[in-house]
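Submission sheet (multi-component)
Chains listed below:
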Amino acid sequence: MLFHTLTFAVFLVVVFTLYWAIRRLGLRFQNLFLVLASYVFYGWWDYRFLILIFISSLTDYMVGRGLEKVENPGRRKLLLIVSVVVNLGLLGFFKYFDFFIDSFSTLLGIFGLRVNPTSLNFILPVGISFYTFQTLSYTIDVYRRRVKPTRDAIAFFSFVSFFPQLVAGPIERASNLLPQFLKERRFDPKEAVEGLRQILWGLVKKVVVADFVASYVDSIFNAYGNLDGLVLVGGVFLFAIQIYCDFSGYSDIAIGVARLFGFRLMRNFAYPYFSRDIGEFWRRWHISLSSWFRDYVYYPLGGAFGTPGKRFLVIIVTFTLSGFWHGANWTFILWGLLNGLYYLPLVFAKNPTHHKGVVAKGRFLPTWREFFQMAGTFAAVLFGWVLFRSESLSHAFGFLKRMITHPYLPGEVWHTPYLEPILVGLGLLFLEWVQRRKQHTLDIGGLPQAWRWAIYYAVSLVIICFGTFAAKEFIYFQF
Amino acid sequence: MRNFILKVLIFLLPLAGLLVLQCLVDPLDFYSETQLLPPVSLSVRAAKVDNYLDHTDRDFDTFIIGSSRMMRLDAEGMKKYGFKAYNFSVLAPMVEDLYCVLEFILEHNRRPVERIILGVDVLAFHNNRPSDRLLAVPVLSRYLDENDPLATLPEEKVMQKVSTSTRFTFVSLFNAVTGSERDVQFELVPENGNLADTPVPPYDHPPVVDSLTAQSYWEHYQGYTALDPRRERYFERFLEICEGSGIEVIACITPMQTVMEKYLAQTTSYTERKADLIAYLDTLEFSCFRYYDLSTVDKFGGLEQDFRDSVHFGSVNAELLLQRMLEDYPGVEAESVPHS
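Outcome: structure written.
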């Protein structure tokens, strides 16, 4: 069930109505209803994979209960290992098995050994990387005694399967989301209105921008061998717009929907393309995943402490793993590695600049210094997106090579339709720039009511008249 | 909570009103006969059906069926071959359109049909395009199999249809308020289905890709990864019916300007799909059927400039195309068309 379909609209209205109607029956009943609704939501794709969510939830609930009772460090570690093995085992089996088999077979081939690898060709269960990491963070935090384990199984199952963020995040922490399932929720009209605003803006990003530019991106990346450098640069820019609008649009809708149900999810995007260095970019892009890797990989491995060699290794390992999280493909691994390399100068700089806060604060335009910092960071990110979007390393290198060696546009190829989506992308960036101090671009709560309503109608009309309703899946579903 | 729901409903009310309005205005003739204002464009399918049914005799022996490109073929001019023809070509037909038109003709024509001049676009076999235009004309779409997914508009297409219709509702309202005429793309001759301006003097379109047409065709080819087996089946049923009814089918793969073909070959799956189509047509064994690959003008001695917009050819090319298709047809002596 996709957020931008009529099916979901009907589902949301029904679930919202029943959810608040049954509030008087008690919290546990309301949570149970959420579990059922979430399972229906997920089962809409493929009900068979519900068993995986159930196994993950049950394992981590039991492990949490075990960790509550057991004091012996060895046994506690054993329980944690059980959780890690089950969760990463499921993830590895469904997502990475074929990749490892194929890579191993290729490696043997280099040494002249031939094997006939058995690929399982499983369908990747939607959202497995997201809910696995979410539930894993719970057991790790319980193990570290940072989160109190819950005895309320229904609340825990709701926490793992909560439908707004089940399939593509934000990857929530137990410390933030779980307590919200344990206390009574009251309907807050202000929160609900704020949620609707965020849903509206998420829909604009998804159906007006991301899905509109998607077909242009596909055509450029598929036919790059016939196109010229400038068109390819345009294609990478459009992909940058597409992936940002697609994923942050999903996050906006997820956060907005959660607000309708009385939940506050963490922010996942904070205008990442206005970052002044790559570190800032990673604090603003897919924040829930970046902070997950920071807390559960980077810090435990030593973080910014230790010898230069160790610090180098920790950075590279963390970024490479985060690339690998996105998919079983060498392109993602190299993309992660590349971002690690981008990040190194920030770690080893004597006086590192840690850009925080809003760029050009108190001014409309940035300074030249800020502008070039943003442009440089954006260019580095674009370069990485080529790897991210390509289907294989040879595709990526072929694309990059053509971009550099065929820079010109012969007359007839200029008669291509790429200008319109580029203008749409630039328009979106402009609006985001204007609103960069706000939580999201449609955060207009401070305006007079007449203005707010006028804007709501304008945005709704833009969605109705210019939306692309091709039921395209969100890109991050494949991860 | 009650206030919140009330506010949301109040907010949604004008939007719901707008959706009703677009249904009533029906600027693109998507719905039934609800139009409050003149449509902003002509629904060719509905117009051809109406014109044909209004025809007192309905005694045609020849039908021209195909896409907007085939609409330029002169049905009236076919008298010189001894044919009484009706041009039943429509905009952007998929294979099932051709099939439904054939069924409609066979049901309503009062004389046995002897031949069909058929224009086949490579796009007609697209494996990711719904039959939205056909489904808007129930008098034609009723020939589709009830259980065929092609006979149902997918949810996203319904939404897309509403979206487009809403957009053009504003155009209709603007026209009504300002008194502007609708942007008439073309008019039809009710008696024979011809374009009203047929024959036109030769066009002089330069051999440069027309950007708007390029964009439109490029978009059409998105997601076209193979010939649709369901559409192949409709094509075979089309030929089976013709074979059973003794109707000759003389078909061609329709042409476009060479630069446009080159552009599509560079940026879309056009070349692969055309090769698929030719391979598929070669496998068909129907004695009533023969086809010609006339996808570029050099294949029928046409004029590179006689195009309105890189895809839609003019009268000279239409006549040359027809001559080439009828060259091998028994009993037909084609008059040669002078190249202008």
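Remark: Chain A touches chain B at residues 5-7, 20, 187, 189, 192-193, 196, 215, 218-219, 223, 226-227, 411-413, 415-417, 453, 456-457, 460-461, 464-471 (CB under 8 Å).
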